[in-house]
Amino acid sequence: MPVLPFANRPRPVLLGHRGAPVLADGNTRASFVAAVEAGLDGIETDVQRTRDGVLVIYHDFVVGLRLISDMTFAELRETRPEILTLEELFDLLEPYESFLINLEIKSIPGLEDGRAHETADAVAAWSGRRRVWISSYDPVALLKVRERQPEIPLGYLFRVYDTSRMAELLGLEAVHPEFRLLDAGRLNRWHRKALAVATWTVNDASAARELAALGTDVIMGDDPAALLAARREK
Hints:
By secondary structure, the chain is α/β, with parallel strands linked by helices. It has one domain (13-232): Phosphatidylinositol (PI) phosphodiesterase (TIM Barrel, Alpha-Beta Barrel). Helices cover 34% and strands 21% of the residues.
Protein backbone atom coordinates (compact mmCIF):
# COMPACT_ATOMS: atom_id res chain seq x y z
CA MET A 1 0.00 0.00 0.00
CA PRO A 2 1.40 3.45 -0.87
CA VAL A 3 2.73 5.48 2.06
CA LEU A 4 2.58 9.26 2.01
CA PRO A 5 6.05 10.79 2.35
CA PHE A 6 4.99 12.90 5.32
CA ALA A 7 3.42 9.97 7.22
CA ASN A 8 5.94 10.18 10.06
CA ARG A 9 6.54 13.93 10.05
CA PRO A 10 5.36 16.28 12.81
CA ARG A 11 2.13 18.07 11.92
CA PRO A 12 1.45 20.37 10.25
CA VAL A 13 3.70 19.77 7.26
CA LEU A 14 4.27 23.11 5.50
CA LEU A 15 4.50 23.32 1.70
CA GLY A 16 5.25 26.33 -0.45
CA HIS A 17 2.60 26.68 -3.13
CA ARG A 18 4.64 27.00 -6.35
CA GLY A 19 7.69 27.51 -4.12
CA ALA A 20 7.67 30.85 -2.33
CA PRO A 21 5.94 33.22 -4.77
CA VAL A 22 5.89 36.16 -2.34
CA LEU A 23 9.70 36.05 -2.54
CA ALA A 24 10.24 35.13 -6.21
CA ASP A 25 8.10 34.36 -9.23
CA GLY A 26 6.19 31.12 -8.61
CA ASN A 27 7.26 27.82 -10.17
CA THR A 28 10.76 29.08 -10.91
CA ARG A 29 14.17 27.96 -9.73
CA ALA A 30 14.45 31.03 -7.49
CA SER A 31 11.04 30.37 -5.92
CA PHE A 32 11.83 26.74 -5.10
CA VAL A 33 15.22 27.63 -3.60
CA ALA A 34 13.54 30.36 -1.54
CA ALA A 35 11.11 27.76 -0.12
CA VAL A 36 14.04 25.56 0.89
CA GLU A 37 15.94 28.45 2.46
CA ALA A 38 12.85 29.66 4.34
CA GLY A 39 12.69 26.35 6.22
CA LEU A 40 9.54 24.88 4.66
CA ASP A 41 9.10 21.12 4.49
CA GLY A 42 8.53 21.02 0.75
CA ILE A 43 6.70 22.46 -2.23
CA GLU A 44 3.54 21.96 -4.23
CA THR A 45 3.97 22.49 -7.97
CA ASP A 46 2.28 21.86 -11.30
CA VAL A 47 3.09 19.47 -14.14
CA GLN A 48 2.06 20.13 -17.74
CA ARG A 49 3.06 18.45 -21.02
CA THR A 50 4.16 20.10 -24.24
CA ARG A 51 3.04 18.86 -27.66
CA ASP A 52 6.35 17.05 -28.15
CA GLY A 53 6.15 15.24 -24.83
CA VAL A 54 8.24 17.31 -22.42
CA LEU A 55 6.92 17.52 -18.86
CA VAL A 56 7.22 21.09 -17.61
CA ILE A 57 6.51 23.02 -14.42
CA TYR A 58 3.86 25.69 -14.98
CA HIS A 59 0.56 26.58 -13.35
CA ASP A 60 -1.70 27.85 -16.12
CA PHE A 61 -2.83 25.85 -19.15
CA VAL A 62 -2.17 28.81 -21.45
CA VAL A 63 0.94 30.85 -22.21
CA GLY A 64 0.04 33.96 -24.14
CA LEU A 65 -2.88 32.82 -26.25
CA ARG A 66 -1.75 29.22 -26.71
CA LEU A 67 -2.28 26.02 -24.77
CA ILE A 68 0.96 24.56 -23.47
CA SER A 69 -0.25 21.21 -24.82
CA ASP A 70 -0.25 22.75 -28.33
CA MET A 71 3.28 24.17 -28.06
CA THR A 72 6.61 22.45 -28.56
CA PHE A 73 9.09 22.72 -25.74
CA ALA A 74 11.31 24.97 -27.87
CA GLU A 75 8.38 27.33 -28.47
CA LEU A 76 7.49 27.35 -24.79
CA ARG A 77 11.01 28.04 -23.64
CA GLU A 78 11.40 30.84 -26.16
CA THR A 79 8.31 32.46 -24.64
CA ARG A 80 9.08 31.58 -21.01
CA PRO A 81 12.85 30.96 -20.61
CA GLU A 82 12.46 30.48 -16.85
CA ILE A 83 10.26 27.39 -17.17
CA LEU A 84 11.76 24.23 -15.67
CA THR A 85 11.25 20.71 -16.92
CA LEU A 86 10.24 18.09 -14.37
CA GLU A 87 13.68 16.57 -14.73
CA GLU A 88 15.30 19.93 -13.97
CA LEU A 89 13.11 20.29 -10.88
CA PHE A 90 14.25 16.90 -9.62
CA ASP A 91 17.88 17.82 -10.28
CA LEU A 92 17.44 21.11 -8.42
CA LEU A 93 15.96 19.45 -5.33
CA GLU A 94 18.11 16.33 -5.36
CA PRO A 95 20.54 17.64 -2.68
CA TYR A 96 17.73 18.42 -0.20
CA GLU A 97 17.09 14.87 0.89
CA SER A 98 14.21 15.54 3.29
CA PHE A 99 12.43 18.12 1.13
CA LEU A 100 8.97 16.99 -0.02
CA ILE A 101 7.35 17.44 -3.43
CA ASN A 102 3.64 17.36 -4.18
CA LEU A 103 3.15 17.26 -7.95
CA GLU A 104 -0.20 18.35 -9.29
CA ILE A 105 -0.99 16.92 -12.71
CA LYS A 106 -2.76 19.70 -14.60
CA SER A 107 -5.38 18.03 -16.75
CA ILE A 108 -8.12 19.39 -18.97
CA PRO A 109 -11.09 16.97 -18.96
CA GLY A 110 -11.00 14.86 -22.08
CA LEU A 111 -7.31 15.50 -22.72
CA GLU A 112 -5.31 12.27 -22.95
CA ASP A 113 -1.78 12.96 -24.08
CA GLY A 114 0.12 10.55 -21.85
CA ARG A 115 0.95 13.05 -19.11
CA ALA A 116 -0.34 10.89 -16.24
CA HIS A 117 1.66 7.80 -17.20
CA GLU A 118 4.73 9.86 -18.08
CA THR A 119 4.67 11.78 -14.80
CA ALA A 120 4.26 8.53 -12.88
CA ASP A 121 7.20 6.97 -14.70
CA ALA A 122 9.39 10.04 -14.12
CA VAL A 123 8.66 9.96 -10.37
CA ALA A 124 9.26 6.20 -10.15
CA ALA A 125 12.63 6.57 -11.92
CA TRP A 126 13.89 9.34 -9.62
CA SER A 127 16.12 8.47 -6.68
CA GLY A 128 14.04 10.80 -4.48
CA ARG A 129 10.70 9.19 -5.37
CA ARG A 130 9.84 8.47 -1.73
CA ARG A 131 9.61 12.23 -1.16
CA VAL A 132 6.89 12.66 -3.78
CA TRP A 133 3.15 12.30 -3.98
CA ILE A 134 0.86 13.20 -6.86
CA SER A 135 -2.44 15.06 -6.78
CA SER A 136 -4.98 16.19 -9.37
CA TYR A 137 -8.52 17.46 -9.81
CA ASP A 138 -8.85 14.80 -12.51
CA PRO A 139 -9.81 11.38 -11.12
CA VAL A 140 -8.97 9.72 -14.43
CA ALA A 141 -5.41 11.06 -14.25
CA LEU A 142 -5.11 9.67 -10.71
CA LEU A 143 -6.41 6.28 -11.83
CA LYS A 144 -3.85 6.25 -14.62
CA VAL A 145 -1.04 6.97 -12.17
CA ARG A 146 -2.25 4.20 -9.86
CA GLU A 147 -2.45 1.80 -12.79
CA ARG A 148 1.04 2.69 -14.00
CA GLN A 149 2.97 3.05 -10.73
CA PRO A 150 0.82 1.71 -7.87
CA GLU A 151 3.38 2.56 -5.18
CA ILE A 152 3.02 6.35 -5.67
CA PRO A 153 0.72 7.97 -3.06
CA LEU A 154 -2.15 10.03 -4.44
CA GLY A 155 -4.35 12.95 -3.36
CA TYR A 156 -7.63 14.23 -4.79
CA LEU A 157 -8.02 17.99 -5.22
CA PHE A 158 -11.35 19.77 -4.89
CA ARG A 159 -12.73 23.22 -4.15
CA VAL A 160 -16.05 24.96 -3.35
CA TYR A 161 -17.95 21.68 -2.84
CA ASP A 162 -16.96 18.62 -0.80
CA THR A 163 -16.32 15.83 -3.32
CA SER A 164 -14.06 13.83 -1.02
CA ARG A 165 -16.16 10.73 -1.68
CA MET A 166 -14.18 10.47 -4.91
CA ALA A 167 -10.99 9.81 -2.95
CA GLU A 168 -12.70 7.03 -1.04
CA LEU A 169 -14.07 5.44 -4.21
CA LEU A 170 -10.65 5.53 -5.84
CA GLY A 171 -8.84 4.22 -2.77
CA LEU A 172 -6.51 7.21 -2.51
CA GLU A 173 -4.34 8.27 0.41
CA ALA A 174 -5.19 11.97 0.78
CA VAL A 175 -7.75 14.67 0.13
CA HIS A 176 -6.68 18.17 -0.89
CA PRO A 177 -9.61 20.53 -0.14
CA GLU A 178 -9.47 24.29 -0.55
CA PHE A 179 -9.01 25.62 3.00
CA ARG A 180 -12.46 27.18 3.29
CA LEU A 181 -13.98 23.69 3.12
CA LEU A 182 -12.17 22.62 6.27
CA ASP A 183 -13.82 22.38 9.66
CA ALA A 184 -13.38 20.06 12.63
CA GLY A 185 -16.22 17.76 11.58
CA ARG A 186 -14.95 17.18 8.06
CA LEU A 187 -11.35 16.85 9.18
CA ASN A 188 -12.27 14.20 11.76
CA ARG A 189 -14.42 12.34 9.23
CA TRP A 190 -11.60 12.22 6.71
CA HIS A 191 -9.12 11.10 9.35
CA ARG A 192 -11.47 8.32 10.47
CA LYS A 193 -11.43 7.10 6.87
CA ALA A 194 -7.60 7.06 6.97
CA LEU A 195 -7.32 10.00 4.59
CA ALA A 196 -4.61 12.58 5.17
CA VAL A 197 -5.75 16.18 4.68
CA ALA A 198 -3.66 18.68 2.70
CA THR A 199 -5.20 22.12 2.32
CA TRP A 200 -4.46 25.21 0.22
CA THR A 201 -3.84 28.16 -0.39
CA VAL A 202 -3.32 29.60 3.10
CA ASN A 203 -1.64 33.02 3.17
CA ASP A 204 -2.77 34.33 6.54
CA ALA A 205 -0.87 33.45 9.71
CA SER A 206 -3.97 33.30 11.92
CA ALA A 207 -5.74 30.99 9.45
CA ALA A 208 -2.65 28.78 9.36
CA ARG A 209 -2.64 28.60 13.16
CA GLU A 210 -6.32 27.68 13.25
CA LEU A 211 -5.85 24.93 10.67
CA ALA A 212 -2.86 23.59 12.59
CA ALA A 213 -4.93 23.53 15.80
CA LEU A 214 -7.63 21.49 14.03
CA GLY A 215 -5.05 18.82 13.21
CA THR A 216 -4.60 19.48 9.49
CA ASP A 217 -1.83 17.30 8.09
CA VAL A 218 -0.46 19.60 5.37
CA ILE A 219 -0.88 23.35 4.91
CA MET A 220 0.14 24.96 1.61
CA GLY A 221 0.62 28.65 0.96
CA ASP A 222 2.50 31.35 -0.93
CA ASP A 223 4.09 33.06 2.10
CA PRO A 224 6.62 31.07 4.14
CA ALA A 225 6.32 33.49 7.09
CA ALA A 226 2.55 32.92 7.36
CA LEU A 227 3.00 29.16 7.21
CA LEU A 228 5.84 29.05 9.74
CA ALA A 229 3.73 31.06 12.19
CA ALA A 230 1.49 28.01 12.55
CA ARG A 231 4.41 25.89 13.65
CA ARG A 232 5.70 28.44 16.16
CA GLU A 233 2.27 28.71 17.80
CA LYS A 234 1.77 24.96 18.28
